[in-house]
Write a structure and sequence with these properties.
heterodimer, A: about 450 residues, alpha/beta, Four Helix Bundle (Hemerythrin (Met), subunit A), Rossmann fold, eight-stranded mixed sheet, two-stranded antiparallel ribbon, 23 helices, B: about 325 residues, 2 domains, two-stranded parallel sheet, 10 strands, about 50% helix
Chain lengths: ~450, ~325
């Protein structure tokens, strides 16, 4: 429903243009839409209230009233205010120069602390730091084993003393050991605890007083509802955390909790955890999160990802080839691999604006296996075949199918579609608009979108 | 009138042991009911603050606005909130509910309980009458699936004297099977597990074969937590269900989703996507011992017709409880015992 906020605002205010000005009742109607959308995104009720009040005030200023397209103006104001509320610029972790930096992780049960600890270890490890993890969750069965496994994957050493030791003692011992072993960073994973559990909150506060961490991070699940505010307030009171890690952002939660936590505690959101893999952990960008809450996609992230993966010269060369129909299966393979390096296609689709609103794309589940098959087929061709797919006939077809473990039919399809795609590319690259039916034909099987049952 | 385990677990046999006897850790047992009362009163307290007596003293526009606010803060979501407030307002306007505090509050509790209950007067029990019965437990990561399974297993084996077998089909999360094995040990249940990374469908298959061979009464299959947007993992869950369907006719006899009470409106999307992938019979609403009210359960019940069956109110063994719609509604609105 949030996806359509932009559209709903546009239609709510559609009649206004003909009237020539935006009256207070128009603004009120727009505010109702915004309010509903924010509540559906789990932004805290009180935060919504003060937010809409501020947006309304700005909307009633003359620039919005007199602008030609009030709908767009309102969206712009909302976007700016959201970004502003979420933190302006991001703050980074504090590091000790030439010594040990201690980071304490805290949060509710199941918020994703252990995973976030390992991901943070991997991120800091990639920066060239020597990282160790301390296992202070002695309560949940097998929590230590989990940290040892993910820690190993992250390339970090895990310090643990079993489940019998006292968490405060473990933390103290781990800091000493990390210093002795000359580590740069020690990340302390603690047990999940309810913010109303006085005993466990006192324990957390004791760990903090004993080891004096340089950074305390609160891990908050992106799916959290209205309660995010009381959780953040309690943790802030007990340990005065410095920043927030927002986890499970790879789902379809709007993450309004992030907004609430920032608004209420004033503490910045530092990191966003976005997937299963260890490297799915990024520094947080308030502007992009505002776009997500508004359903405007995550274009900036997508562009950044593409920039990391694609070489500008290569892209130019590719463009030239497309325009002249010299694009070969070899180029196609290279391109496909570049795109896939950016992550699962499904994730990429989610970052594109408008995709959320397109019904038929909403539940698309790109079959990565199909892409693997396409790759296998191309890899089973000779170089000559990749450069001139026209020569792929009878016996070559059979050989390629056998070599790639596919059926002749599938090889045929790929070659045929590639031919259509090449034509289409030429058209697009030389400025013509492709015929939609042709587009469907050419893209139909490459990344076959499979609509899930029911 | 509280809902007991024997009301919510339809096992085909009468309970044999007293409910709260067993390998309960020191300090865990004695405070069980006190803590249940405390934690429910916590959530009650919160809404009670919103719905103080003065709220209904004078019934005007502000009354309805504040009621709306209270329901939103309980995570009931804009849709349920709007319909409940509208209905109550209409009933007061038409005169069928007296425009005074107590009458409105009582009617509000009735409406909320009605939404939560779904089926008239009775709760829909967890059907484990078949032999063996298969219970499939699903949900998003970190919602408390494994822990809830451990506790259900404990009740089935200690309270009903049933032979329970657990299938560790969460082969993704590091040490998930170890966690389940610890619970199997505590509950006196058997466990079938495989190594990390094994195919969950084949673990489910093995568990059911083993359950049939040893004559287990109930087989509970734990699954890996997954986000509802992870298409391939959701497909995999569908496959696990199909594997189970093929082995025993009518199985799984009950499929539950575990939902964290702190979850906001995304809970609705979770329930919807899991229902599409595996068909759901009920919800385990966990972590109700915090300050979250779990109002999302109302949205799930009213929009998807899936009732809550169990609630989790703490870490202890006895902190998994049968869901009581009246108590839940009362806790939301915050009126007395």
């Amino acid at each position: 429903m949030f996806d359509q906020l932009s559209e709903r605002l546009q239609s709510t205010l559609a009649g206004v243009r003909s009237k020539g000005r935006l009256g207070e009742e128009d603004v009120d109607r727009a505010m109702r839409e915004i309010r509903l959308a924010l509540l559906e995104a789990d932004v805290n009720f009180k935060v919504v209230k003060s937010f809409t009040a501020r947006v309304k005030e700005r909307c009633l200023e003359s620039e919005v009233l007199e602008s030609l397209d009030p709908g767009q103006q309102v969206i712009k104001v909302v976007n700016e205010e959201l970004t502003d509320l979420m933190g302006g610029s991001g703050r980074d972790l504090a590091f000790v120069d030439g010594g040990l930096t201690v980071i304490l992780m805290a949060g509710l049960q199941g918020s994703g602390k252990t995973t976030a600890s390992a991901k943070l270890a991997a991120l800091l490890g990639r920066d060239g730091r020597k990282v160790a993890l301390a296992a202070c969750d002695v309560y949940r069965p097998a929590a230590i084993e989990q940290l040892e496994t993910v820690g190993r994957r992250a390339g970090a050493t895990v310090y643990q003393k079993g489940t019998e030791a006292d968490p405060v003692e473990i933390a103290k011992w781990a800091v000493d050991l990390a210093r002795e072993e000359g580590r740069d960073v020690l990340i302390i994973d603690t047990a999940g605890r309810l913010h109303v559990d006085e005993g466990l909150m006192a324990e957390l506060s004791k760990i903090r007083k004993t080891v004096k961490p340089h950074n305390i991070l609160l891990v908050v699940d992106a799916m959290t509802g209205q309660d995010a505010v009381s959780v953040a307030e309690s943790f802030s009171e007990a340990v005065e955390f410095d920043g927030v890690v927002i986890s499970k952002l790879d789902g379809d939660a709007r993450g309004g909790a992030a907004l609430s936590v920032k608004a209420v505690t004033g503490k910045p959101i530092m990191f966003a955890s976005t997937g299963e893999k260890l490297d799915a952990f990024d520094r947080f960008h308030p502007d992009r999160m505002a776009g997500r809450i508004l359903g405007m996609g995550d274009v900036l992230s997508l562009i950044e990802k593409a920039e990391q993966q694609v070489d500008a010269d290569e892209a130019e060369e590719l463009q030239r080839k497309m325009a002249s129909e010299q694009f070969t299966l070899e180029d196609f393979l290279k391109q496909m691999r570049q795109v896939r390096k950016m992550g699962p296609i499904g994730n990429l689709l989610g970052m594109m604006p408008g995709m959320g609103a397109m019904k038929q794309l909403k539940d698309v589940d790109v079959d990565e296996g199909e892409l693997d098959r396409v790759e296998a087929i191309i890899l089973s061709m000779t170089r000559e075949e990749r450069l001139n797919p026209e020569i792929i006939k009878g016996s070559r077809r059979r050989r390629i199918a056998e070599g790639s473990g596919t059926r002749i039919q599938q090889v045929n399809n790929l070659v045929k579609q590639f031919g259509q795609m090449r034509k289409l590319m030429k058209q697009v690259a030389s400025g013509g608009m492709p015929d939609p039916s042709q587009l469907a034909k050419a893209t139909g099987r490459q990344a076959r979108p499979r609509i899930r049952r029911r | 009138m509280t809902v007991e385990w024997s009301d919510i677990l339809d096992t085909g046999v009468a309970p044999t042991g007293p409910p709260d006897s067993g390998p309960v850790e020191e300090g865990e047992k004695k405070g069980a009911f006190r803590r249940l009362r405390e934690s429910l009163s916590r959530s009650r307290q919160a809404l009670a603050e919103e719905l103080t007596a003065s709220l209904f003293d004078r019934v005007d526009e502000e009354t309805w606005e504040r009621l709306e606010e209270a329901l939103i803060l309980a995570d009931a979501g804009p849709m349920v909130t709007a319909s409940v407030v509208e209905r109550l307002e209409m009933e007061v306007d038409s005169g069928s509910v007296a425009p005074e505090g107590d009458a409105i509050r009582e009617r509000l509790i009735e409406i909320l309980a009605e939404i939560a209950r779904l089926d008239g007067d009775s709760v829909r029990p967890i059907d484990l009458t078949a032999r063996p019965s298969v219970l499939l437990v699903t949900g998003v990561n970190g919602t408390g699936k494994t822990t809830s399974i451990g506790k259900i297993a404990w009740h089935l084996s200690n309270e009903f004297g049933l032979d329970v077998l657990l299938g560790a089909a969460d082969t993704y999360r590091a040490a998930a099977a170890e966690q389940l094995a610890e619970w199997a040990d505590r509950a006196g249940a058997g466990i079938v597990r495989s190594q990390e990374g094994a195919d969950p469908g084949s673990v489910a298959f093995d568990a059911i074969e083993a359950g049939k061979a040893r004559g287990s009464d109930v087989i509970i299959i734990d699954t890996a937590g997954r986000l509802q947007t992870q298409g391939s993992l959701m497909d995999e869950l569908g496959k696990v269900r199909r594997v189970i369907e093929k082995q025993i006719e009518g199985a799984p006899h009950e499929t539950l989703i575990s939902i964290d009470a702190t979850t906001g409106q995304n809970g609705l999307r979770q329930a919807k996507a899991f229902a599409e992938a595996v068909h759901l019979d009920g919800v385990i609403l966990t972590k109700l011992d915090g300050t979250a009210k779990g109002g999302i359960a109302l949205a799930i019940a009213s929009e998807l017709d899936i009732p809550v069956k169990l609630i989790g109110i703490g870490e202890g063994l006895e902190d998994l409880r049968p869901f009581d719609p009246d108590q839940f509604a009362r806790a939301l609105v915050g009126s007395g015992e």
